[in-house]
Amino acid sequence: MVETLHRTNQIAPAIIDMSAGKNPTLNKGIDNSHIIEMPEGSRRKSRMSVDGARIIAALSPRITVTFHNVSKVINVPAKMIDPSSKERYIQRTLLDKVSGQIHPGQIVALMGPSGSGKTTLLNTLAGRALNGVTGDIWFNKQRHEKGMKRKLAYVLQQDLFFESLTVKQQLTYTALLRLSNHLSKTDKIARVEQIIDQLRIRKCANTPIMLISGGEKKRVNIGTELLSNPSVIFLDEPTSGLDSTSAVALIDVLRELSNQGKTIITSIHQPSSQMFQSFDQLILLADGKTIFMGKPSDALPYFATMGYQSPPQYNPADYVMDLVNQDVNVRENLKEAYLRNRITVNENKSISQFKDQNPPEGRKYLTAEPSGNESDLTNPDNVNLISGKDSNRWPIGFFSQMLILFSRSFRLTGKTQFTFLNFVQALSLAVISGLCWLQMDFVESTIPDRSSFIFFIMTFWPFQTLMMGILSFPFERGVIEKERASGSYRLSAYFIGKSLAEAPLKLVLPTLFLIIAYWMARINNNFAIFLAIVVFQLLSILVAESFGLFLGATLRNLHHAITAATVSLISLMLIGGFFIQHLPHWLGVWAKWLSFFKYAYSACLRLQFMGPQIYRCVDGSYVDICKNNINGTFTGDDALRFFDSGIDIQYNFLVLFGMFIVFRIGAYFSLRFIKNNTGRT
Ligand SMILES: Nc1ncnc2c1ncn2[C@@H]1O[C@H](COP(=O)(O)OP(=O)(O)OP(=O)(O)O)[C@@H](O)[C@H]1O
């Protein structure tokens, strides 16, 4: 087994690498599957089949990242920079001809003042936000392609998760989604166990993420990205917000990973002296330009050649940051000095041959930049990075994605829907409503009250669900975008899975409410009519939710979405004719038919007066037939004439159903095509 792994020349998965020096024990497990046992030292035995271990290992060839003259220029709306500007756009250079080479086994630190371009460089190297980017980036000898996504992990600065999931649930869902179906489910779970051990998060494995510490959260964030055993790991300020002990522990984890042959590049703020020295290479940026690239221990001697001497006993990282944070002139000096001093790989070879020819003094402290020639590119593992199985854009098929995302949404929605407070709210409102309309007699005077009961139930729950629908995507978007950026699943699989999982759960409380309130109020004794009213109530809730999802997905600013919802809800109620019987003709002709409240309300009004129920006349105020016959009776049809509504129940159902579909599809397309308008790189 060990031989096989060596022959494939891939980085072994954590379980095997962790055993470096101690041979992993090969076991024949239950069910005839070959199992590797974790070596001593891990708190729990993780078991993965030999085939599984081989597949995981093959996911991670050693990769050298080479970038040459990478620049990024964007057009910023001129008014954002200068409100009095007459121009439409101003060009802004975020990266200016940055070059470098990072080898497997190295941890490279990216430092620089805030706004110097660290995140932009990380994004660019990781193949994200490539608009306005020029220059060359190679992974071994290949350029970035979509199929390469899973070889590159990106640990974002924010730890974005569904925080009500436990650590293990988070990792398991990710493993099921991101690991290909060539691995069995058992192996995927075994991989989760490995990562839990490797990142030392066993103690919080069953704790909801919202309750774990910042350092643990960061490790879960890294663990999530490590599940697919990537070759290159980009990290954006992984230590920010951590205390020094957690930060050191995190860097130790990164060192373990680099020892496994992974290529690591991380931006970092204010590392301790010890941490600073532990990096293999330092790239220092200022205003999008390189001002130093070399060993961290060479940074101070390099700046000293220009007369910038660090005081003794000073943390070199702090000194370097103080230097680049000084006034513009110092930064300009440093930028020019780097241009004078920098060398390419080729020049470096000739310099070493002619050491005496007096090159600029700082040169010897710098790491050579690649020149952009083919000869600069190294390919330690001569494998095609997007060949064979990996060339599939998605790790698992559409239906598997949908089922997993369905299960996750079901779990998450269940947790938010079925809270004690939500039950208290639904039940108490049901009882209060029931008491208000308690046991109405079937008499003429209750006709307005019966209609207002229908109005109440057809507005209260749709209002509430619409507002929840608006919040749905804004809260999930960050996590979804992160997961999609690493090529985990199709948006359509997420959308369908979420819709199928959430809809039934969101209907439970309204149904409970209606069962109580309806029978307390005694709307119509016919059970079939009750069921039909329930169907319309639930359909109107689904339409409202779809409308909310549509607004939330289209207007990416939450305040805008809530304002739009309030305006449209009130308008739809006004033009639905609930408050005004006689709308101006030009408005009434078409506008009232836009109101989805109108369809559900009209249909339920019709339903409630259907059936053989006989009503008693009182004073003839509402029903014509009672005008001169106060002791007589009338039917539901006579009552309906009071509302002047020519209603076709099936038609109303179809229109509502159509609205449900149209708003859902609209929400999907908005989610798919409306990009983040913050324009962040
Ligand atoms: N879409 C954009 N429009 C305008 N400016 C942008 C855009 N994206 C990035 N920038 C600017 O580019 C510069 C580099 O940003 P970047 O986030 O890469 O810096 P950074 O070094 O990572 O900063 P920090 O350490 O604060 O995270 C900043 O000045 C930022 O304001």
Automatic annotation (TrEMBL):
A matching Pfam family: ABC_tran
Compositional bias per record (Polar residues), positions renumbered to this chain: 370-380
Gene3D superfamilies membership: P-loop containing nucleotide triphosphate hydrolases
Domain ABC transporter: 65-312
Keyword Membrane: yes
Cell location: Membrane
Topology in the lipid bilayer: Multi-pass membrane protein
Name this protein carries in UniProt: ABC transporter domain-containing protein
Source organism (scientific name): Adineta ricciae
